[in-house]
């Protein structure tokens, strides 16, 4: 249920991004629970790899924001959660405008928070399990990145870790994976969640 890696680099793309990975397409608009779960696992890959390797986990704020938004959307917007059922609540700003406040109780809000945390925790554990199982591949790719800075699927990744185990997958052009994840997470185009908040005035 995941997309194929196209490229990974440690060359900073912007002042906020320390590196990035490119995956697959933007032409799909319907996603199953399994597909969204896989995409959350992919987005968590950098955070989990940092935690396993360095115990330094400050470089994945943007990815965590996207994963949290996708998980909340499954629970609150897409009707993809068994405990919540097929129900939709718009985001907080729209709730305030349309209903004069939240149209659900504190108890239901707690349930949504708990279900969202469970989804993210499951995705994190799955990602951690995969990376621990294949840690030698993670280390091999990291060492190669230090030498080349950028790895491409056909020329580098396949030579290091082999072809995708479930058959060939579709590939896309640069930055489309991030754009699609942002769309699913409800993040406006061009907006970066890694920008530091303004410092308080004296």
UniProtKB/TrEMBL annotation:
Keywords attached to this entry: ATP-binding, Hydrolase, Metal-binding, Metalloprotease, Nucleotide-binding, Protease, Zinc
InterPro entries: ATP-dep_Zn_Metalloprotease (IPR050928), Peptidase_M41 (IPR000642), Peptidase_M41-like (IPR037219)
Pfam families linked: Peptidase_M41
Cofactor: Zn(2+)
GO biological process, one term: proteolysis
Secretion signal span: none
Domain Peptidase M41: 2-152
UniProt GO molecular function: ATP binding; ATP-dependent peptidase activity; metal ion binding; metalloendopeptidase activity
Domain of life: Eukaryota
The keyword tRNA-binding appears for this protein: no
Name of the protein described by the UniProt record: Peptidase M41 domain-containing protein
